[in-house]
């Protein structure tokens, strides 16, 4: 099997099976995806760094072991290449968080998740674009230019992990890693027709993830299928003593749950419709696809119950106090003194450390990062801490209580992932509040630390993807995968195959000529 367009359109699980059967090799997969990256990048800009030589070397090392029969016992995805959001450090590969303040920085160590991928024999294709320091909802706030949505390159792919989502949606990579602080894996998943998962907080090590908001950030999978996501989460999950927030618990059996769900029998599964995340405010096509998906769940035997989480209406406001406060604290380390960019004061300005720090941060940070640092510094300042940050944390506790009560009645909660399909590039750049509203349905899961997933629910009336969100109790990530896989199978039947196969990928057509 050597046809590039055929190889890259296989799911990650199918690519892994092809390696195991001898129909292809890890090197062939890497070469095929590098060819797509070269063809697609002028239109997509999903990658900040392409590590082709490193990926080929990693693939060759895996293939050599495979030929000797030394790969038994490795995870199912062994040999399958992957892209990495540039918020996760990679030894020897430039890592910038899409910011000028880290331009050219080469980490001296790997994040825990990268160590696990390398141990699994999964070659790293490169680092993907994002909103600077993961702060944004559209991947327009990158210091290195916006990423484009492969479904319509005049539109955003969502954010902050639009690079990872677009890379997977455009067949530049079969899998990717993202980080999710308020929906930055799930919201791009919704807008690009990919599967995005935010694991339970602490279920995947954050060691080596550049900190944005430490109590909210979580690394998770980006894929095209529910099974691929499950397989990848099983690779990267597990306890890590280097991460003080890591949970000492076994990795849940997510792939088994996904395979069980593919049988499309949901009898005994209770699904909760979140009253506060429905109704007005959603694009008609988004609401229509959501209601159709809920009906499919019922048709497969699930019991659907409306539940109320009344404090969720305050979640967005609480998040936009907690998150900037933690941003303000975490980004204080970028001062030009120790690593990264250093800008000296202009001539005539005293050459002091304070002035150098000010000049460095002015030149190194973009507008959105500065906005959040200022907001967070204000919320943490004397006289305002209790009124703003303290109150937001109390709201967070109420959101957790709402979820706990809901999960006494149901196994999973569901809602649309994003209020709309992908909007035009530049459409909301001058209205930060409108941009922030895109995360209204995804933020609660981050505040509560619960696992959540977005899967494609079909296409809206405008021909663009719509996302369907599932939320499970803390530490029960496996509960997401059975109904998600069942719904995926039912939707594929309705849409005559996965929606990602219907995308007009002109770069693939050019490669096939």
From TrEMBL:
Entry-linked Pfam families: Amidase
InterPro entries named in the record: Amidase, Amidase_CS, Amidase_dom, AS_sf, GatA
Record gene name: gatA
This protein's GO CC annotations: glutamyl-tRNA(Gln) amidotransferase complex
Signal peptide location: none
GO terms, molecular function: ATP binding; glutaminyl-tRNA synthase (glutamine-hydrolyzing) activity; transferase activity
Assembly behavior: Heterotrimer of A, B and C subunits.
Record has Protein biosynthesis as a keyword: yes
Family named by the database record: Belongs to the amidase family. GatA subfamily.
Domain Amidase: 28-480
EC number(s) per entry: 6.3.5.7
Region (Disordered): 137-165
Keywords on record: ATP-binding, Ligase, Nucleotide-binding, Protein biosynthesis, Transferase
Catalyzed chemical reaction(s): L-glutamyl-tRNA(Gln) + L-glutamine + ATP + H2O = L-glutaminyl-tRNA(Gln) + L-glutamate + ADP + phosphate + H(+)
Function: Allows the formation of correctly charged Gln-tRNA(Gln) through the transamidation of misacylated Glu-tRNA(Gln) in organisms which lack glutaminyl-tRNA synthetase. The reaction takes place in the presence of glutamine and ATP through an activated gamma-phospho-Glu-tRNA(Gln).
Active-site residues, Swiss-Prot/TrEMBL: 85, 160, 184
Name assigned to this protein: Glutamyl-tRNA(Gln) amidotransferase subunit A
Gene3D superfamilies the UniProt entry points to: Amidase signature (AS) domain
HAMAP family membership: GatA
Record GO biological process: translation
Annotated PROSITE patterns: AMIDASES
């Amino acid at each position: 099997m050597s046809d590039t367009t055929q190889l890259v359109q296989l799911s990650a699980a199918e690519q892994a099976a092809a390696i195991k059967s001898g129909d292809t090799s890890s090197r062939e997969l890497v070469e095929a995806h590098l060819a797509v990256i070269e063809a697609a990048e002028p239109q997509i800009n999903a990658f900040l760094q392409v590590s082709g030589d490193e990926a080929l070397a990693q693939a060759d090392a895996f293939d050599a072991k495979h030929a000797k029969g030394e790969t038994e016992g490795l995870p199912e995805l062994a040999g399958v290449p992957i892209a990495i959001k540039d918020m996760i450090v990679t030894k020897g590969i430039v890592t910038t968080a899409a910011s000028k303040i880290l331009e050219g920085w080469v980490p001296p160590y790997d994040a825990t998740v990268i160590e696990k991928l390398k141990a699994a024999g999964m070659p790293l294709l490169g680092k993907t674009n994002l909103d600077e320091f993961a702060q944004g909802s559209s991947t327009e706030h990158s210091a290195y230019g916006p990423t484009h949505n492969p479904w319509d390159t005049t539109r955003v792919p969502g954010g902050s992990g639009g690079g990872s989502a677009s890379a997977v949606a455009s067949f530049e990579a079969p899998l990717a890693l993202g980080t999710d602080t308020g929906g930055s894996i799930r919201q791009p998943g919704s807008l690009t027709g990919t599967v995005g998962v935010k694991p339970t907080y602490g279920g995947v090590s954050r060691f080596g993830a550049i900190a944005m908001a430490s109590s909210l950030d979580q690394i998770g999978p980006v894929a095209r299928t529910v099974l691929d996501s499950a397989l990848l989460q099983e690779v990267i999950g597990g306890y890590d003593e280097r991460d003080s927030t890591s949970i000492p618990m076994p990795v849940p059996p997510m792939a088994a749950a996904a395979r069980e769900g593919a049988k499309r029998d949901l009898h005994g599964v209770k699904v909760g419709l979140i009253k506060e995340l429905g109704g007005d405010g959603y694009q008609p096509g988004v609401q229509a696809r959501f209601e159709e998906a809920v009906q499919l769940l019922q048709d497969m035997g699930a019991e659907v119950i409306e539940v109320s989480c009344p404090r969720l209406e305050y979640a967005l406001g609480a998040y936009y106090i907690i998150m900037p406060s933690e941003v303000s604290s975490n980004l204080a380390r970028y001062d030009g003194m120790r690593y990264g960019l250093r800008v000296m004061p202009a001539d005539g300005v005293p050459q002091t450390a304070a002035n150098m720090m000010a000049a460095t941060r002015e030149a190194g940070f973009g507008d959105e990062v500065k906005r959040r640092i200022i907001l967070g510094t204000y919320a943490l300042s004397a006289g305002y801490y209790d009124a703003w940050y303290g109150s937001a944390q109390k709201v967070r506790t109420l959101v957790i209580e709402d979820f706990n009560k809901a999960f006494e009645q149901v196994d999973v909660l569901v809602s649309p992932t994003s209020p709309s399909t992908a909007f035009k590039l530049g459409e909301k750049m001058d209205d930060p509040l409108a941009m922030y509203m895109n995360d209204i349905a995804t933020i609660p899961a981050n505040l509560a630390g619960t696992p959540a997933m977005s899967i494609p629910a079909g296409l809206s009336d405008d021909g663009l993807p719509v996302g369907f969100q599932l939320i499970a109790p803390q530490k029960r990530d496996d509960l997401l995968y059975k109904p998600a896989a069942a719904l995926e199978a039912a939707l594929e039947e309705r849409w005559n195959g996965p929606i990602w196969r219907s995308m007009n990928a002109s770069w693939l057509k050019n490669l096939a000529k």
